[in-house]
Amino acid sequence: MRITKPSWLSHKGEQKDFEVYSCHVSPDGKRLATAGGDGHVRVWSVESIFHANDPSYTKPRQLCHMSHHLGTIHSVRFSPNGRYLASGADDKIICIYQLESGPPTIAPFGTNEPPPVENWKTSKRLIGHDNDVQDLAWSHDGSILVSVGLDSKVVIWSGHTFEKLKVLGNHQSHVKGITFDPANKFFATASDDRTIKIFRFTPPAPNATQHDMVNNFQLETTINSPFKSSPLTTYFRRCSWSPDGNHIAAANAVNGPVSSVAIIERSRWDSEINLIGHEGPTEVCMFSPRLFYTKKPVENGVANGHSSGGALVTVIASAGQDKTLSVWNTNTSRPVVILQDLAAKSISDLAWTPDGQILFASSLDGGIIAVEFETGELGWVANLEETDKALSKYGASRKAMGIAEDVDGLQLENHSKEGERRGAESRMGALMGDFHPLPKDAPPATNGVRTSAATSDAPSTNGQADTQPEKDKPDSDKPAPEEESADKAAQRVNELKSRVTITKDGKKRVAPMLISSSGTGQSSLPQSQLVGSNSSSKAAQNDAPQTILDLSKPYDGLPEGGLAAMLLGNKRKVIATEGEDDEEHPAKRTSTGPRAIMRNGVEGIEPAAPEPLKHGSVPTPEYLRPSVLNPTISMSQVRLAVPKIRTSIIRPLVRGALLEDAPSNQEDANKMVDNVVLEAKNPLSIRDPSHIFAMKRAALLWQDYLPRAIVLVTGSKRFWAAACEDGSLYTWTPAGRRLINAMILESQPVILESRDWYLLCITAVGMCYVWNIESLSSPHPPVSLAPILEIATSSLQTHSAMPAPGVTSAHLNSNGHIVITLTNGDGYYYSPSMYSWQRLSESWWAVGSQYWNSNDSSVGALQSTAVGSVTSKDGQSGGATVSAGIIPFLERHTTNEFLLKGRAYTLQRLIKSLLSRDGFEGFESIVSIAHLENRIAGALQLGAKEEFRLYLFMYAKRLGAEGHRGKVEELINSLLGGVLQDKKEKGGEEKGKGKGWYGKGDDICGWDRKELLKGVVMILGKFRELQRLTVQYARILDLTHEDEIASDAMMVEA
User: Fold this and answer.
1) What single DSSP character describes residue 895?
2) Residue 447 contacts by C-beta under 8 Å, 6 or more apart in sequence?
3) Taking the CA of residue 763 as centre, how many other CA atoms within 13 Å lie in the half-sphere pointing to its CB?
4) d(C-alpha 692, C-alpha 709), whole Å
5) Nearest residue to 946 (alpha-carbon basis) of 899, 883, 898
6) What's the sign of the alpha-carbon dihedral 89, 91, 94, 99?
7) Which of 927, 976, 929, 922 is nearest to 956 (CA)?
8) pLDDT tens, residue by residue, 369-396
9) Residues 766-813 pLDDT 10s
C-alpha cells in the first residue's frame, strides 16, 4: 500500500487551501475531478498524481478547471460513458459539462491557473432545487441523473436531454446521499429524517418526457431502524451499493450509542450487519467497483467450470468526522486497514478507480489523498464477467418492464406496437413529404428501432434519402402510377422547402415552410356541416398530455400589432422608420406607452396613417328608445339585458355573408348573390306598426306588418322568426306564410336563435324555450338559466342587481339541445332527458389538467388518432356529425374568457402552491384523468361520436400508463355491454334498462361497441402489468392470432 498526497493537488486560495467536498474518477480511470469551496471544478491527470515525485515527468497535472457556480460545490460526478461531468452546488444549480474535441480556451488574463489541456464546456444548467444541492448520482446505464438537496427533494433528470422527469418529495428533511443499484432497478436516498428510501424505476427512453414518467419512480420501501438516533451534524450521508447488487452501505448509522456503517441486504431491506470502529459519525462509504477473490486464481483461468480463486468478496471503504479511513471486506469481521488521522478535518468523499486498486479521499482541510493498494492486499480482482453473472440474477441485462406471462400476451403486445409503428411512421412520412404505405408484412419495431431488413424495403421516414442502391432494389425498372404521383408530390414539396427570399440588405434566405396546422380557427357549433368528419386535410396530432397553460406573463387579449397581427400574424418583417435602430428588434422593446396601430404594407408591417373615408361616414344602427318593460321584472331571480328598439334589423340567411364586404345598408346586402336577407324596420312612433320583409337579389320575396316593435329576428332554410317587445313570437315559412299563431312569453326575448327546424328563445327573466317547428312540439318544458348563473351561491337583493356571469352566446345543436357560454368562461349543456344543466367546460381544467390546450381540439383531424374501423354503427362514414366540435369550441371559449378577465394567473398560482403541499403529490395526474372523464361524459351526452372515440382512446392510454387496474377493468366491462349476450336474452333485457355505458345494445354513441373495445384493448396491450386482464378480452376478440397482426390496419397514436 502506498499513500500519495501531492502538495499541488488542492484547491489553493490566497491565504489557505479551500475545502474539497467531492471527488470522482472518470470511467477510463485517467481523470480525477474534484470540487471545492472556491466554486471551482478541477480535472486532474491521475497519471501525474503517481508521478508527483518524478522530476522527469513533464506532462500537465491539471487538465481543466471550470468556475460556473456562484458558491461552494458539494458534489461532482462523471457519467458512466465519460461524456458528461455533473456538479451540484449551494447556488441550487446543477451544471453539466461536456468534453469537446476542439482546442481549449485560453485561461483568463490575470489568473494563476495553468492553461487548460482539455476542452470541457458547460452544456446545460439544470434548475430544479430550492436549496443547496448536496449529492448527485448517474444510473449505471446513464439514462438518468438524480440530484438531492437540502430542500428535501429528489429530482430525476433525463441523462440524454437533461429534461426534468420527476420530483419526489417523500423525504421530510434534508437529503444528503444518493446511490444507484448496479442492476439498474432501484436507487436509494439517505436523509436527515433518519431514513433511507428505496425507489424502484424503469430506465426511461432517450426521448421520454415527464408525462411518460407518471407511473415510474415508485417508492419501494423505507428503512429507518439503523438510524433512529443518528446525529444530524454530518455534512453528508453518502451511501453506496455493492457491485454485485446484494448490499447497500449506509453512512451515519448507529448501533446503540456507537457510530457505525449499516449494511442493508437487498430484497429483505433490513440491516443485520454493522461495521463498528469509527469514533465519530461517518460521512461517506464507498464500495469498490470490482469483486475480489480471497485466493489467487489459477494462471490458466477456470478449472472444471469453477474459478479456483476462492470466494468472491466485496471491498468497502468508509470515513467521516473522526478523520479516519477504514477499508473492509465481506470475508472478515475486522477492517483490512485503518488509516488514522489521515486528514486534519473530516473526510468528505471517497472515489475508487475502475480497476478497484486505487482509492482517492477528499477532506475539508483542502487535501486530496491517493491510496494505492498492491496486488493481493485487498484480494485478487475478479473478471467483469463475474460481476455481470452476479447481477444477472437481479435482471440486470433485462429491461425492468415485467415479463409477459404467456404467448398470447406477447402477441397482443406486438399487435399494439405494430399499430403504433404504422401510425408514427405514416405521420412522420406525411410531415416530411415522403409518405409511402407501409408493407403489411414488415416486422414490428423493437424499442423504437427498426431492423435492417425492414429499413431496406421501406422508404426512409426521417426525411433522408434511401441509401439502398437503385440497382439492388427489386422491380426498380417498373414504375407504378402511384409512384409517379408520389414523385411529383415530393418534387413539389422540395420546391417549397427551397424557396429563397432576398432581404432588404441583399442577403438570401430560405423561407420556412409551414408543414402542419391545427385547423382550429372556427367552431362548428352553429353550422356543423363545415367541419364534417371526412375532412380531406387531417392535421397531425399528439394525444400526449401537454404542460399546463403558461400564465406567467400578463395577457391583454391582443398580440403585438393589435387586431391585424392577431388575424394575419406578426411574423412579417417590420419597415424601419427614421430614428430607429435597425439592430433593435421590435419584440424586445419595452412598451410602456400606448401601442401603435400597424397595417400590412407592400414591404411588410408599417405604422398606419389616417386615411379619409372612401364613401363618407358609415351610419351605425340608430336606437329609437328602450324596450317597454314591466317594473315587476326587478323582482325576478334572473334579470337579463333587453335589446333596445332599433330602426332596422338585418339578418342574412347565410350567417357571416354580410361580414365579408361589410355592406352598410340594405341595398348593398340585397345585391349579394343567392343570399336571402330578412329586414325589420321599426317606426318612430310607438303606435305605428313595424314592417318586416325578405329580399333576394334586390327583389322582394314577401313582406308583413306587426303591431308592436320588433326586437330580434332569426331564420334558417326552414322558417323565419321575429320577436316583439311585448313578448310575442311570430314565425313564417320561407315564402312568407305564417306558420303558428303568435306565441306569447312572460317577458321580452333577449336571445333568439334557430337551427334547422329548432327555434330557441331566451327571455329577460332567464327562461329558455325550445320548439320544434316541424312537429309543433317542444323537446322539454321551459327551463331557467338561474342554476348556471350562480343562483345557488348568490344572495338576492330586492332593489338592486347583483353581479353574476353574463350570457355570451346561446346555440342549438342539430338535435335541438341548448349550449350556453358565460362571461366567466364556463360552458353548459342542457340535458332534456335528465332535466338538468351540465357543465362541459370550466377554468378549473385549464389550470389543473395536462390535457388542456392539447392538439385534439381539431375536429377535422379526429380520425388521425383512430384505432380500428372508422365506420360508425349505421355504416356512414361521411357527412355532418351531430354536435361535432362543441366541446373544443367551449374549451377555446374558456381559455379566451379567463385570460381576458385576468383570473387565470391567480388560479395557476393557487394550483402551484397546492402541488408543494403534503397530500397533493398526484394532483395533476388526478385532475387530468378527471378532465378526460368529463370530456367523455360530455361527448356521450351530446352524441358527438368523433370526440367520444378520440377522448375514449386518450383516456385508455392514460389509464394504462398510470396502471389503474380497477378503472381499466370497469371501462372494458362497460364497453363490453351486451356484445357477448344472446340476441334473445339481450332483447328481453333492453326493456326499461340503462342507456349509454349501462346499455346492452350493440352500439354506444353511434359506434359499434366491439370495434371500440378492440381499440381500447389494443392500446392497453403494451402495458404488461395489465396483460393478465387485457389478454382475456383479446382472446375473445381474436386479437392474439398471428394473422391478425399482419392483416389488421389498426393505428394507435404513438
Assistant:
1) H
2) 205
3) 25
4) 10
5) 883
6) negative
7) 929
8) 999 988 888 888 888 888 888 888 776 6
9) 899 999 999 999 999 999 998 888 877 766 565 566 677 888 889 988
